[in-house]
Design goal:
This protein has 358 residues and is of the alpha+beta class. The chain contains 6 helices and 21 strands.
Length: 358
Protein backbone atom coordinates (compact mmCIF):
# COMPACT_ATOMS: atom_id res chain seq x y z
CA UNK A 1 0.00 0.00 0.00
CA UNK A 2 2.83 2.32 0.94
CA UNK A 3 4.64 1.60 -2.34
CA UNK A 4 1.46 2.33 -4.25
CA UNK A 5 1.15 5.75 -2.61
CA UNK A 6 4.78 6.51 -3.40
CA UNK A 7 4.20 5.54 -7.05
CA UNK A 8 1.15 7.80 -7.28
CA UNK A 9 3.11 10.68 -5.73
CA UNK A 10 5.98 10.17 -8.21
CA UNK A 11 3.53 10.18 -11.13
CA UNK A 12 1.90 13.39 -9.87
CA UNK A 13 5.31 15.06 -9.52
CA UNK A 14 6.33 13.94 -13.02
CA UNK A 15 3.08 15.25 -14.50
CA UNK A 16 3.58 18.56 -12.72
CA UNK A 17 7.13 18.83 -14.09
CA UNK A 18 5.91 18.07 -17.62
CA UNK A 19 3.13 20.66 -17.31
CA UNK A 20 5.56 23.32 -16.09
CA UNK A 21 8.00 22.46 -18.89
CA UNK A 22 5.28 22.68 -21.55
CA UNK A 23 4.08 26.02 -20.22
CA UNK A 24 7.59 27.40 -20.16
CA UNK A 25 8.39 26.03 -23.58
CA UNK A 26 5.22 27.52 -25.07
CA UNK A 27 5.98 30.94 -23.67
CA UNK A 28 9.45 30.92 -25.16
CA UNK A 29 9.45 28.94 -28.39
CA UNK A 30 6.18 27.30 -29.38
CA UNK A 31 2.77 28.55 -30.40
CA UNK A 32 -0.78 27.35 -30.67
CA UNK A 33 -2.09 26.14 -34.00
CA UNK A 34 -4.59 28.96 -34.03
CA UNK A 35 -1.93 31.65 -33.79
CA UNK A 36 -0.29 30.42 -37.00
CA UNK A 37 -3.46 29.53 -38.85
CA UNK A 38 -3.32 31.94 -41.80
CA UNK A 39 -4.15 29.69 -44.75
CA UNK A 40 -7.72 29.16 -45.96
CA UNK A 41 -8.13 25.64 -47.25
CA UNK A 42 -11.57 26.03 -48.86
CA UNK A 43 -11.26 29.22 -50.90
CA UNK A 44 -14.38 28.30 -52.90
CA UNK A 45 -16.42 29.36 -49.86
CA UNK A 46 -14.80 32.79 -49.58
CA UNK A 47 -17.40 35.51 -50.16
CA UNK A 48 -15.53 38.68 -49.22
CA UNK A 49 -11.99 39.85 -48.59
CA UNK A 50 -11.19 43.21 -47.01
CA UNK A 51 -7.75 44.78 -47.27
CA UNK A 52 -6.99 48.03 -45.41
CA UNK A 53 -3.81 49.94 -44.62
CA UNK A 54 -2.81 52.74 -42.28
CA UNK A 55 -3.25 55.36 -45.04
CA UNK A 56 -7.01 54.75 -45.16
CA UNK A 57 -6.80 52.79 -48.40
CA UNK A 58 -9.47 50.09 -48.43
CA UNK A 59 -10.11 47.38 -51.00
CA UNK A 60 -13.16 45.15 -50.69
CA UNK A 61 -13.26 42.12 -52.96
CA UNK A 62 -16.66 40.48 -53.19
CA UNK A 63 -17.82 37.35 -54.98
CA UNK A 64 -21.21 37.75 -56.65
CA UNK A 65 -23.81 35.02 -57.13
CA UNK A 66 -22.62 34.38 -60.68
CA UNK A 67 -19.12 33.68 -59.36
CA UNK A 68 -17.60 36.89 -60.68
CA UNK A 69 -15.69 39.22 -58.37
CA UNK A 70 -16.10 42.98 -58.01
CA UNK A 71 -13.88 45.56 -56.34
CA UNK A 72 -15.37 48.11 -53.96
CA UNK A 73 -18.86 47.28 -55.24
CA UNK A 74 -18.17 49.13 -58.49
CA UNK A 75 -15.54 47.64 -60.78
CA UNK A 76 -15.07 44.14 -62.20
CA UNK A 77 -12.06 42.45 -60.66
CA UNK A 78 -9.24 40.94 -62.67
CA UNK A 79 -9.80 37.18 -62.84
CA UNK A 80 -6.08 36.26 -63.19
CA UNK A 81 -5.18 38.44 -60.20
CA UNK A 82 -8.04 37.04 -58.10
CA UNK A 83 -7.18 33.46 -59.00
CA UNK A 84 -3.55 34.00 -58.02
CA UNK A 85 -4.59 35.68 -54.76
CA UNK A 86 -6.96 32.87 -53.81
CA UNK A 87 -4.18 30.37 -54.43
CA UNK A 88 -1.96 32.47 -52.18
CA UNK A 89 -4.56 32.47 -49.41
CA UNK A 90 -4.81 28.70 -49.70
CA UNK A 91 -1.15 27.79 -49.90
CA UNK A 92 0.70 30.22 -47.61
CA UNK A 93 2.45 28.48 -44.76
CA UNK A 94 4.19 29.40 -41.55
CA UNK A 95 7.91 29.11 -42.04
CA UNK A 96 8.80 29.86 -38.43
CA UNK A 97 7.85 32.15 -35.56
CA UNK A 98 9.74 35.41 -35.28
CA UNK A 99 12.62 34.89 -32.82
CA UNK A 100 11.73 35.96 -29.30
CA UNK A 101 14.39 38.67 -29.30
CA UNK A 102 12.80 40.34 -32.36
CA UNK A 103 9.11 39.89 -31.59
CA UNK A 104 8.57 43.24 -29.87
CA UNK A 105 10.25 45.12 -32.73
CA UNK A 106 8.31 43.28 -35.45
CA UNK A 107 5.00 43.79 -33.65
CA UNK A 108 5.77 47.52 -33.51
CA UNK A 109 6.47 47.55 -37.25
CA UNK A 110 3.24 45.71 -37.95
CA UNK A 111 1.29 48.16 -35.81
CA UNK A 112 2.73 51.08 -37.78
CA UNK A 113 2.70 49.75 -41.32
CA UNK A 114 0.70 46.62 -42.01
CA UNK A 115 -2.23 45.61 -44.17
CA UNK A 116 -5.21 44.33 -42.23
CA UNK A 117 -6.84 41.31 -43.87
CA UNK A 118 -10.37 40.12 -43.14
CA UNK A 119 -11.68 37.00 -44.84
CA UNK A 120 -15.35 36.02 -44.88
CA UNK A 121 -16.72 32.62 -45.86
CA UNK A 122 -20.15 31.13 -46.49
CA UNK A 123 -20.31 28.35 -43.92
CA UNK A 124 -22.99 26.12 -42.39
CA UNK A 125 -24.06 26.48 -38.78
CA UNK A 126 -24.92 22.77 -38.70
CA UNK A 127 -22.83 19.81 -39.87
CA UNK A 128 -24.36 16.42 -39.17
CA UNK A 129 -23.66 13.04 -40.77
CA UNK A 130 -22.00 14.68 -43.75
CA UNK A 131 -24.87 17.08 -44.25
CA UNK A 132 -24.64 20.87 -43.98
CA UNK A 133 -27.43 23.32 -43.23
CA UNK A 134 -28.26 26.84 -42.09
CA UNK A 135 -25.56 28.70 -44.02
CA UNK A 136 -24.41 32.20 -43.15
CA UNK A 137 -21.49 34.48 -43.91
CA UNK A 138 -18.84 34.33 -41.21
CA UNK A 139 -15.57 36.15 -40.68
CA UNK A 140 -13.02 33.35 -40.44
CA UNK A 141 -9.64 35.10 -40.59
CA UNK A 142 -8.29 38.43 -39.39
CA UNK A 143 -4.56 39.02 -39.61
CA UNK A 144 -1.96 41.64 -40.43
CA UNK A 145 0.58 41.45 -43.26
CA UNK A 146 3.83 43.34 -42.88
CA UNK A 147 6.97 43.89 -44.90
CA UNK A 148 9.38 41.32 -46.23
CA UNK A 149 12.05 39.68 -44.14
CA UNK A 150 15.66 40.87 -44.68
CA UNK A 151 16.39 37.90 -46.96
CA UNK A 152 13.27 38.70 -49.06
CA UNK A 153 12.09 35.10 -48.70
CA UNK A 154 9.17 35.65 -46.36
CA UNK A 155 6.66 38.14 -44.96
CA UNK A 156 5.82 39.03 -41.39
CA UNK A 157 2.26 38.21 -40.32
CA UNK A 158 0.33 38.42 -37.08
CA UNK A 159 -3.13 37.10 -36.33
CA UNK A 160 -5.50 39.41 -34.51
CA UNK A 161 -5.38 38.66 -30.81
CA UNK A 162 -2.18 36.60 -31.05
CA UNK A 163 1.04 37.37 -29.20
CA UNK A 164 3.54 35.87 -31.61
CA UNK A 165 4.26 37.17 -35.14
CA UNK A 166 5.37 34.72 -37.80
CA UNK A 167 7.43 34.54 -40.93
CA UNK A 168 5.15 33.26 -43.68
CA UNK A 169 6.11 32.16 -47.18
CA UNK A 170 4.55 30.55 -50.25
CA UNK A 171 6.01 27.27 -51.49
CA UNK A 172 7.41 27.67 -54.98
CA UNK A 173 7.66 31.45 -54.79
CA UNK A 174 11.16 32.89 -54.82
CA UNK A 175 10.19 36.04 -53.01
CA UNK A 176 7.62 37.30 -50.54
CA UNK A 177 3.83 37.53 -50.60
CA UNK A 178 3.32 41.02 -49.16
CA UNK A 179 2.75 42.69 -52.58
CA UNK A 180 -0.16 40.33 -53.25
CA UNK A 181 -2.06 41.98 -50.40
CA UNK A 182 -2.20 45.31 -52.22
CA UNK A 183 -4.54 48.09 -51.07
CA UNK A 184 -4.32 49.91 -54.42
CA UNK A 185 -7.68 49.75 -56.17
CA UNK A 186 -6.03 49.73 -59.60
CA UNK A 187 -4.09 46.56 -58.78
CA UNK A 188 -7.33 44.58 -58.57
CA UNK A 189 -9.40 46.01 -61.40
CA UNK A 190 -10.00 44.15 -64.62
CA UNK A 191 -8.08 45.56 -67.62
CA UNK A 192 -10.72 44.60 -70.17
CA UNK A 193 -12.23 47.39 -72.28
CA UNK A 194 -14.18 45.37 -74.84
CA UNK A 195 -15.18 41.75 -74.41
CA UNK A 196 -17.95 41.32 -76.98
CA UNK A 197 -18.58 38.52 -79.41
CA UNK A 198 -19.99 39.43 -82.81
CA UNK A 199 -23.37 37.92 -81.95
CA UNK A 200 -23.70 40.38 -79.05
CA UNK A 201 -22.77 43.52 -81.01
CA UNK A 202 -25.45 45.69 -82.57
CA UNK A 203 -23.25 48.44 -83.99
CA UNK A 204 -19.81 50.01 -83.81
CA UNK A 205 -19.14 53.66 -84.59
CA UNK A 206 -15.63 54.86 -85.40
CA UNK A 207 -14.94 58.61 -85.46
CA UNK A 208 -11.58 59.95 -86.63
CA UNK A 209 -11.42 63.71 -85.93
CA UNK A 210 -8.15 64.04 -87.88
CA UNK A 211 -9.82 62.49 -90.96
CA UNK A 212 -13.61 63.01 -90.78
CA UNK A 213 -14.14 61.46 -94.20
CA UNK A 214 -12.72 58.20 -92.83
CA UNK A 215 -15.31 57.96 -90.04
CA UNK A 216 -17.98 55.28 -90.31
CA UNK A 217 -20.46 53.00 -88.60
CA UNK A 218 -20.91 49.24 -88.92
CA UNK A 219 -24.35 47.84 -88.13
CA UNK A 220 -25.05 44.15 -87.60
CA UNK A 221 -28.61 43.40 -88.63
CA UNK A 222 -30.81 40.62 -87.26
CA UNK A 223 -29.96 38.42 -90.21
CA UNK A 224 -26.23 38.92 -89.36
CA UNK A 225 -25.76 41.09 -92.43
CA UNK A 226 -23.13 43.81 -91.86
CA UNK A 227 -23.79 47.30 -93.19
CA UNK A 228 -21.08 49.98 -93.41
CA UNK A 229 -22.26 53.60 -93.31
CA UNK A 230 -20.14 56.70 -93.92
CA UNK A 231 -20.60 59.25 -91.13
CA UNK A 232 -19.92 62.10 -93.56
CA UNK A 233 -22.60 61.19 -96.09
CA UNK A 234 -24.79 59.05 -93.80
CA UNK A 235 -25.12 56.63 -96.71
CA UNK A 236 -24.37 52.94 -97.03
CA UNK A 237 -20.97 52.20 -98.51
CA UNK A 238 -20.50 49.63 -101.26
CA UNK A 239 -17.40 47.99 -102.62
CA UNK A 240 -15.87 47.06 -99.28
CA UNK A 241 -14.11 43.83 -98.36
CA UNK A 242 -16.65 41.79 -96.40
CA UNK A 243 -13.99 39.62 -94.77
CA UNK A 244 -12.12 42.68 -93.48
CA UNK A 245 -15.29 44.11 -91.97
CA UNK A 246 -16.11 40.74 -90.40
CA UNK A 247 -12.59 40.48 -88.92
CA UNK A 248 -12.93 44.03 -87.56
CA UNK A 249 -16.20 43.24 -85.81
CA UNK A 250 -14.76 40.03 -84.37
CA UNK A 251 -11.81 41.94 -82.93
CA UNK A 252 -13.83 43.33 -80.01
CA UNK A 253 -13.77 39.97 -78.26
CA UNK A 254 -10.73 40.71 -76.08
CA UNK A 255 -9.40 44.27 -76.02
CA UNK A 256 -7.39 45.03 -72.88
CA UNK A 257 -5.19 47.88 -71.72
CA UNK A 258 -1.77 47.76 -70.13
CA UNK A 259 -2.00 49.95 -67.01
CA UNK A 260 -3.87 52.72 -65.23
CA UNK A 261 -2.48 56.24 -65.44
CA UNK A 262 -4.89 58.07 -63.11
CA UNK A 263 -2.25 58.67 -60.45
CA UNK A 264 0.87 59.07 -62.57
CA UNK A 265 2.41 62.31 -61.32
CA UNK A 266 4.40 63.26 -64.42
CA UNK A 267 1.37 62.94 -66.73
CA UNK A 268 -0.88 65.94 -67.26
CA UNK A 269 -4.16 64.09 -67.59
CA UNK A 270 -6.21 67.25 -68.12
CA UNK A 271 -3.96 68.16 -71.04
CA UNK A 272 -4.45 64.71 -72.57
CA UNK A 273 -8.23 64.91 -72.23
CA UNK A 274 -8.40 68.39 -73.76
CA UNK A 275 -6.38 67.40 -76.82
CA UNK A 276 -7.99 66.18 -80.02
CA UNK A 277 -8.74 62.46 -79.89
CA UNK A 278 -7.03 60.12 -82.29
CA UNK A 279 -9.95 57.68 -82.61
CA UNK A 280 -13.33 57.66 -80.84
CA UNK A 281 -14.95 54.23 -80.76
CA UNK A 282 -18.48 53.55 -79.55
CA UNK A 283 -19.84 50.03 -79.27
CA UNK A 284 -23.54 49.36 -78.68
CA UNK A 285 -24.57 45.84 -77.76
CA UNK A 286 -27.87 44.05 -78.31
CA UNK A 287 -29.19 45.10 -74.92
CA UNK A 288 -28.62 48.77 -75.68
CA UNK A 289 -25.61 49.16 -73.40
CA UNK A 290 -22.98 51.50 -74.82
CA UNK A 291 -19.23 51.59 -74.29
CA UNK A 292 -17.35 54.61 -75.59
CA UNK A 293 -13.60 55.14 -75.57
CA UNK A 294 -11.44 58.00 -76.78
CA UNK A 295 -7.84 57.37 -77.81
CA UNK A 296 -5.04 59.93 -77.81
CA UNK A 297 -1.52 60.13 -79.19
CA UNK A 298 1.36 59.64 -76.78
CA UNK A 299 4.58 61.58 -77.23
CA UNK A 300 7.44 59.49 -78.54
CA UNK A 301 10.04 58.39 -75.99
CA UNK A 302 12.50 57.12 -78.60
CA UNK A 303 13.39 58.06 -82.15
CA UNK A 304 11.55 56.11 -84.83
CA UNK A 305 11.75 57.11 -88.48
CA UNK A 306 9.44 56.30 -91.35
CA UNK A 307 10.49 54.96 -94.75
CA UNK A 308 11.40 58.48 -95.83
CA UNK A 309 13.63 59.07 -92.82
CA UNK A 310 11.19 61.39 -91.09
CA UNK A 311 10.75 61.15 -87.33
CA UNK A 312 7.41 59.94 -86.03
CA UNK A 313 6.10 62.64 -83.66
CA UNK A 314 4.11 60.09 -81.65
CA UNK A 315 4.85 56.87 -79.83
CA UNK A 316 4.47 54.01 -82.30
CA UNK A 317 4.07 51.38 -79.59
CA UNK A 318 1.56 52.84 -77.12
CA UNK A 319 -1.34 55.27 -76.87
CA UNK A 320 -3.57 56.79 -74.21
CA UNK A 321 -7.17 55.64 -73.87
CA UNK A 322 -9.99 57.28 -71.92
CA UNK A 323 -12.48 54.69 -70.61
CA UNK A 324 -15.39 54.28 -68.18
CA UNK A 325 -17.21 57.45 -69.24
CA UNK A 326 -14.09 59.52 -68.81
CA UNK A 327 -13.30 58.32 -65.28
CA UNK A 328 -10.04 56.60 -66.19
CA UNK A 329 -7.04 57.25 -68.40
CA UNK A 330 -5.08 54.12 -69.27
CA UNK A 331 -2.07 53.10 -71.31
CA UNK A 332 -2.62 50.64 -74.15
CA UNK A 333 -0.53 48.98 -76.83
CA UNK A 334 -1.04 49.44 -80.56
CA UNK A 335 -0.34 45.70 -80.81
CA UNK A 336 -3.74 45.19 -79.17
CA UNK A 337 -5.60 48.22 -80.46
CA UNK A 338 -4.51 48.32 -84.10
CA UNK A 339 -7.15 45.78 -85.14
CA UNK A 340 -9.97 48.13 -84.08
CA UNK A 341 -8.29 51.38 -85.18
CA UNK A 342 -9.28 51.04 -88.81
CA UNK A 343 -10.14 53.99 -91.11
CA UNK A 344 -12.90 53.53 -93.65
CA UNK A 345 -10.41 53.22 -96.50
CA UNK A 346 -8.95 50.07 -94.91
CA UNK A 347 -12.06 48.16 -95.93
CA UNK A 348 -11.89 49.00 -99.63
CA UNK A 349 -11.41 46.04 -101.92
CA UNK A 350 -9.14 48.29 -103.99
CA UNK A 351 -7.70 50.92 -101.65
CA UNK A 352 -6.61 53.08 -104.58
CA UNK A 353 -10.20 53.54 -105.65
CA UNK A 354 -12.68 55.80 -103.89
CA UNK A 355 -15.59 53.99 -102.36
CA UNK A 356 -18.93 54.19 -104.09
CA UNK A 357 -22.12 55.25 -102.34
CA UNK A 358 -25.41 53.53 -103.06
Amino acid sequence: MKNKRILILVIIILLAVVAIWLAYDRSNSTFSKNEGDFAVEDTARITRILLADKRNNIVVLERKEDGKWVVNEEYPASKPILDMFLQTLKNIRVKEPVPLSQQKHIISLLAANAVKVEIYQYLPRIRLFGKEAWFREKRTRVYYVGDATPDLRGSYMLKEGADIPFIVDLPGLRGFVSPRYSTRLEDWRDHTIFHHRLANIHEVTVEIPEMPDQSYKVIRHDDNRLEVISLVTQQTVSGYDTLKVLAFMNSFNNIKFESFLNKVEDLNIDSVRSSQPFFVITLKDNSGETIKVRTFHKKAEREVRDENGELFPWDVDRLYVEINDGKDIVLAQFFTFDKILRPLGYFYIKPSEAYKLQ
